[in-house]
Amino acid sequence: MKYLGLINWFDSIKGFGKIALPHTDDVFVHVKNIAKYAYLTQLTPLIFELKQNSRGYYADNVSTPSTYNDFKLILSYIKENPRVTVKIQTTRSSKFGLQYPSEKEKYCNLIIHALNQLFIKNDAEEIYNFFRS
Predict the structure, then answer these.
(1) Are strands 16-20 and 2-11 parallel, antiparallel or unpaired?
(2) Rounded distance, CA 15 to CA 54, Å?
(3) Which residues contact residue 42 at a Cβ distance below 8 angstroms, ignoring those fewer than 6 apart?
(4) What does 34-48 look like in DSSP terms, one character per residue?
(5) What φ, ψ does residue 74 adopt, rounded to 5°?
(6) Which CA distances in Å does 78 have to 71, 83, 95, 120, 121?
(7) Which architecture, in CATH terms, is 2-132?
(8) Are residues 28 and 58 in contact, defined by beta-carbon separation less than 8 angstroms?
């Protein structure tokens, strides 16, 4: 079964990170499980299969949304309108001018991010064919 989630964080040097999912804990993702090379940044939507090993659940066959089947999967989430919580790292300044790291939770609409990624990766003719089918 395929799932849809957003990158919560990803360390490109170490090659792993976490995918935020609605209604459950984050899922581990490793670069070796990414089907097609994708530049992964925070809030990048991913479609994947959920597998389990001795350490817990992890994402396998990971890719960014790019096909008609991915489009149908995204639309299947519309009824529940899922949101995921992502922790955003920022730098703030004190009233004395000192810089310090800060973490803020952001609630993101999963469908909006996934459709945006899908439309960015495809040209107008492919998108038109998505809706015609």
Answers:
(1) antiparallel
(2) 20
(3) 7, 8, 9, 10, 86, 88
(4) BSS-----TT-EEEE
(5) -60, -45
(6) 11, 11, 44, 20, 21
(7) Beta Barrel (2.40)
(8) yes
- Between CA 46 and CA 7 the distance in angstroms is 7
Residues 45-55: pLDDT tens digits?
A: 999 999 999 98
The pLDDT of residue 27 is above 90: yes
Q: One-letter amino acid identity for 19?
A: I
Q: At CA 29, angle to CA 32 and CA 113, rounded to 5?
A: 115
- The predicted model scores a pTM of 0.78
Nearest to 85 by CA among 17, 22, 4, 14: 22
3-state secondary structure 52-66: EECCEEEEEEEECCC
Average pLDDT of the residues of the chain: 84
User: Angle at Cα 93 formed by Cα 85 and Cα 90, nearest 5°?
Assistant: 25
